[in-house]
């Protein structure tokens, strides 16, 4: 792998090579976060080579202008984006008056390591000046025990020669967004100073759209041995402390920098400085190692219900561990005002907002590997934004609610008509997640409470968005973009039509099962419900009888249909080589579309139908979305195409670690981090949670000696270990559980072994 | 008409009312230009109310950033736009130390008038101070005799009281574009000064795209009586002269301001100041009235071969006169590096560049009302840009040449995929204009010379852009936007497919008729030509046999088809009331699409076919493009729907004068200025120029007592006068001409009368 910059080990990424041509890639991969905030793996002392310094605070964003290009009615007023926030980790370093800079300076014994079990980032190197050799050892982590805290430890040791050291732990608010068109700054200083602790309080600049301004305050303390306090940093957008002194050979200085961050999302502005001071004071009572231990213990609790172990394949182990670590670093359900941005805290691309990826790709994972509360927080996020979704529908002149393609606050903030107005299948995914939560947990309280309110408004949207074609005598949905974003503005996308028909039917079913008083409260009368059933039943679902496949959209079969392997290798990925025009007109599919729909409603189809569709579409699919291969892997496994399933799994498992799409320098593909997990658990282990309960149809991929994983299910914690010829099920917590393995109903209570069929 | 701000008179627009809520509209309508430069009808002395001051210099533009929103492969690097240039007309005025300002000051006897025969703009008012009444009379025009010159005369007369007058004729370079996102300025000062003449030399700021920078230099002189020179203006971006003095009641001052403008398009920068000085010196030898007379004489020559006279309907007369005047002010073929922007010199919307409108809507007019050289200059413009058109095709990964949607230099500079990549029918219009020129003039020299080179490259584009559908066994064109821009990304747009098939066939025909040596030089071998014929013959042209109509595109008939009159009146125009999504999905047609194609190839269809298509599409057409109603009017006339033709004519004839689309404040719809002419000449008079010659099938619209028009045709000048029951043809110049009137072949030599059939 030409793009592999880190060594393979199961639970960490590490390297002893500093590739200065790939700093952005290295920074993306060594990102870490604690759901409250996060940052790229930037260097404390700065770096003068090509690099992208990025610090992001959860829920803090700015509504930027979107009135560019050619306006269309219905477009949102602004484009929300995360903004690069105060650099929290800065520790300027000078030796004998010269800055330490790994881009320009001589150094040796470099090592960089991110622990994928607890997010501890360590970095060390020996820096060589004209007269001395000095060893630097950095450690840092963002605490999940106290999410306001960033903890850093730096040891500086003179190995040879004597050296004058100057260290300046500081906070740096002079930051810009990568996508700034005109070098704009989005922050203005509210307060700063060296006392009571060095602090910097920045407020987002005013905006004309009436969205809230945010104030973010960072305060720091520095506990230093071996150097003497020698000043403060107190300049616009800067606050910090200066330490200096002489280190003789063998002497060591230790710098503990503790930074606390609060925002007006949680604490009113007037109390910010007091709050960070108190947080820092409390932190001062514990050591770095104690803080790390408390933090690590909480991570261990997470792993106890989510760990995936792949034996005999460290690359695969590293891949799945990296993915789960990065996902949990981004979101663990503590704050239901937050969601999961496509780049998490690792970059700015896509604005950093909420996408439909959450419901389509992440809900199934969180349902299995974390408390149901985590998923419920994700559902609550959408329910809380129902009024905004109604606003979005009104913007299109339509009834009901349209959940946004991209948002921070529920209001759509993306302005490409073929996405904003047309990629409306997202509205189906929001509904489907409610059904999935209900089916997985068996808990109907969310569905019949807030859930049905969301479903009703989504159904109203669909009922208004269809039209009746007098010529064809069916309901149709024109002008959509399906999951395959390599086609836009198509008519009767099979996926979208299927999902819409399902939502209308499911909502009607749920309404009919509601207690009378709740039904009255929800306020849907029988005629409206009947209309939904009529649309659902009369929906046109394109199908080709001769081919025996569902047809992606009305005119797909008119295209020049040919397999991906007819494309010269040097023209892939298509999105980096072909014009958009050529991509749109080609038959090549960016990401699972018909198969995505059949995956969602798998039980409606025979294995033969699945197979025919897989064999038709998979050869035309280029998987240039990070969200595609995993779904195809699950389907391949379901139809017994094990080798294909493994091949597809490989495309998703180490997407970022191996920089498959050549864009990881922009940040990690956070919302596709569930892909490998889906391929392993739903694919290789064949896990399904249906109304009838949990089932497995496992096999062991070639090259692995075994794999195991832990899932939660209705109060139980279940460990599943798949070996060559058998599967071991162990109930780690909860009451005995009846489930189906290889079509056999078994009851797990303690441990159980089921042989694979021959 | 609530939007009518000018009185109706046949050859002028005038008003005695200053409606300060509609200044932008007034300014647009009183715009004037001389093809070299132009300006909105701004007030010399300034105006502190809402207003848009705009001066534009032909061929001077700036490549602005387009890297906004979501990038797509194939998009151009920059968006070219005209930039607001030095304000040439400024004459600051003070009375007793207070600025004259019609927005805030007391005034009476206001009059504003634009002469539509020679573009003389006159404005007068009496200004009332606390102690005096002062009369101001302004005149100005841009000379077509010396296109570098702007001439202004101002008479100031104290009617009552004595008054201290200060007048400052000056050049003001402190200008901004209306669409500036961040208040950018696009000019930097190169030179300025009071000597040898007050002058200001501005250069466009550097750009990163390698397109040329332009320097524009304006110099002025002022010949003043009744006031004394009292200083100069010499400040950044400003140059001018100051005059002052006391006028007692009955005393008059006259200010003649003459401004000369040159650009680096014509004169190298180092010679600018000398050149403007020489131009001004030469002008000083003639009086304002002499300059005006020379200018007016040239306009009279234009009218002698283009005048349209509508008797008995001054509104109609004013409409057609306004349109022709504004068109000729924008372009009269003197400079084949220029083209006709959609707003001409009257505003900045659409960037001010070249659109396909030129070939589709303006070439037929210029062919008839001006020397063939004017049209040939338009064709030469495209031929000169063939390399850039090849570049544009390569950007899409396609062979041949793709003429741009929007351009200044031939390179596409518009970045909306559904337009840039998909509205490719423009490439057909470029080819069709060559055929039209050849058919009208009978001159094959352009066709067989530069023209065939353009046709071949356009054909190569089409041959690569089609695909062969194995299922349907025909050639198809997927992913286009037809003339009806209320649908995007459709498949097999009948208009586009028809035009592409025609281009391929026509090009093959022309090649086969070429002299051997020319054919060799052009370099198309027989197999390529045969392939074009095969594609042309095998092109899929959607048609519905049951309805007997050509189908706009593949799935048009699946829509909810209904007539425009089912839309509530308060929802029109749709583009101001409906979301883009709703517009796209609706059946409503922005502008002639199938009918546009049948109009182009009228002789291929029977009147019955035309009628069926007209009756099918016209009820669904909202005509929200300024380019639509005129084509429908011509078709309506051709099928004998005279009332409908007149109704449609009315929508186009006074589009700007009555501000039909409620957007004239942004500038005039220059490229639709031919609409009324087409409706009158091709519609009411039924004029056609086919290979067989010229023919007419005239009728007199109800409400008119007669109409007449003059056209040039193959060396003749022909005047046609249509009365209630007869048509009079008069040969004003050239050899006897055989033509067809009401299906009768006649020879015109002198005058001839043909009765209308009963």
From TrEMBL, chains A, B:
GO terms for biological process: carbohydrate metabolic process. Signal peptide: none annotated. Keywords: Glycosidase, Hydrolase. The active site is at 485 (proton donor). Substrate binds at residues 356-357, 590-591. Residues 321-677 form the Glycoside hydrolase family 65 central catalytic domain. Gene3D superfamilies: 1.50.10.10, Glycoside hydrolase, family 65, N-terminal domain, Maltose phosphorylase, domain 3. Residues 15-265 form the Glycoside hydrolase family 65 N-terminal domain. Residues 687-748 form the Glycoside hydrolase family 65 C-terminal domain. Pfam families: Glyco_hydro_65C (PF03633), Glyco_hydro_65m (PF03632), Glyco_hydro_65N (PF03636). GO terms for molecular function: carbohydrate binding; glycosyltransferase activity; hydrolase activity, hydrolyzing O-glycosyl compounds. Belongs to the glycosyl hydrolase 65 family. NCBIfam families: PRK13807.1. This is Glycoside hydrolase family 65 protein. The lineage of its organism: Bacteria, Bacillati, Actinomycetota, Actinomycetes, Micrococcales.
């Amino acid at each position: 792998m030409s793009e592999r910059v880190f060594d393979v080990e199961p639970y960490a990424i590490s390297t002893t090579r500093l590739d200065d041509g790939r700093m952005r890639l290295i920074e993306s991969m060594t990102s870490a976060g604690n759901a409250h905030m996060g940052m790229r793996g930037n260097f404390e002392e700065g770096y003068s080579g090509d690099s992208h310094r990025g610090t992001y605070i959860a829920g803090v964003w700015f509504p930027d202008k979107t009135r560019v290009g050619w306006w269309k009615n219905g477009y949102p007023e602004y484009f929300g984006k995360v903004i690069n926030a105060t650099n929290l980790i800065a520790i300027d370093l000078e030796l004998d008056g010269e800055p330490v800079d790994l881009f320009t300076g001589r150094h040796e014994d470099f090592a960089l390591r991110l622990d994928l079990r607890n997010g501890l980032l360590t970095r060390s190197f020996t820096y060589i000046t004209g007269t001395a050799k000095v060893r630097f050892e950095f450690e840092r982590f963002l605490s999940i025990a106290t999410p306001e805290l960033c903890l850093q430890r730096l040891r500086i040791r003179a190995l040879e020669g004597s050296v004058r050291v100057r260290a300046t732990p500081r906070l740096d608010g002079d930051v810009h967004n990568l996508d700034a068109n005109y070098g704009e700054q989005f922050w203005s200083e509210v307060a700063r100073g060296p006392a009571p602790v060095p602090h910097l309080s920045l407020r987002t600049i005013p905006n004309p759209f009436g969205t809230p301004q945010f104030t973010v305050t960072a305060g720091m303390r520095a506990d230093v041995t071996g150097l003497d306090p020698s000043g403060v940093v107190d300049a616009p957008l800067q606050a910090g402390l200066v330490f200096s002194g002489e280190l003789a050979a063998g002497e060591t200085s230790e710098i503990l920098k503790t930074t606390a961050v609060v925002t007006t999302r949680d604490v009113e502005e007037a109390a910010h400085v007091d709050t960070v001071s108190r947080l820092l004071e409390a932190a001062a009572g514990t050591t770095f190692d104690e803080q790390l231990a408390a933090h690590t213990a909480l991570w261990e609790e997470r792993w106890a219900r989510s760990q995936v172990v792949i034996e005999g394949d460290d690359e695969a182990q590293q891949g799945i561990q990296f993915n789960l670590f990065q996902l949990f670093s981004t979101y663990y359900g503590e704050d239901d005002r937050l969601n999961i941005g496509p780049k998490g805290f690792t970059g700015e691309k896509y604005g950093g907002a909420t996408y439909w990826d959450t419901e389509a790709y992440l809900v199934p994972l969180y349902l299995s590997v974390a408390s149901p509360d985590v998923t419920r927080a994700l559902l609550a996020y959408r329910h809380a934004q129902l009024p905004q979704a109604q606003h979005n529908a009104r913007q299109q002149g339509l009834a009901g609610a349209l959940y946004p393609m991209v948002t921070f606050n529920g209001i759509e903030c993306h302005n490409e008509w073929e996405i904003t107005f047309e990629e409306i299948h997202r509205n189906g995914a929001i509904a489907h997640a409610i059904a999935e939560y209900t089916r997985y947990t068996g808990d109907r309280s969310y569905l019949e409470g807030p859930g049905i309110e969301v479903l009703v408004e989504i159904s109203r949207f669909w009922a208004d968005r269809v039209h009746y074609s007098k010529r064809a005598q069916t309901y149709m949905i024109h002008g959509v973009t399906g999951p395959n974003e390599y086609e836009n503005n198509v008519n009767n996308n099979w996926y979208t039509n299927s999902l819409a028909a399902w939502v209308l039917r499911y909502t009607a079913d749920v309404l009919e099962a509601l207690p009378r008083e709740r039904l009255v409260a929800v306020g849907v009368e029988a005629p409206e419900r009947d209309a939904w059933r009529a649309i659902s039943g009369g929906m046109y679902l394109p199908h080709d009888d001769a081919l025996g496949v569902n047809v992606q959209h009305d005119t797909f079969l008119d295209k020049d249909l040919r397999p991906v392997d007819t494309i010269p290798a040097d023209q892939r990925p298509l999105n980096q080589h072909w014009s958009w025009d050529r991509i749109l007109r080609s038959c090549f599919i960016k990401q699972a579309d018909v198969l995505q729909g059949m995956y969602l409603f798998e039980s409606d189809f025979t294995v033969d139908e699945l197979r025919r569709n897989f064999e038709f579409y998979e050869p035309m699919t280029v998987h240039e979305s990070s969200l595609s291969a995993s779904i195809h892997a699950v389907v391949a496994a379901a139809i017994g195409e094990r080798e294909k399933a493994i091949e597809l799994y490989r495309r998703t498992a180490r997407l970022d670690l191996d920089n498959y799409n050549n864009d990881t320098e922009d940040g990690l593909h956070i919302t596709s981090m569930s892909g490998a997990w889906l391929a392993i658990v739903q694919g290789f282990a064949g896990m399904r949670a249906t109304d009838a309960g949990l089932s497995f149809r496992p096999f062991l991929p070639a090259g692995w000696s075994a794999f195991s994983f832990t899932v939660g299910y209705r109060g139980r914690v279940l460990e599943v270990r798949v070996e060559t010829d058998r599967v071991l099920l162990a109930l780690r917590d909860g009451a005995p559980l009846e489930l189906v393995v290889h079509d056999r109903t078994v009851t797990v209570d303690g441990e159980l072994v089921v042989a694979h069929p021959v």
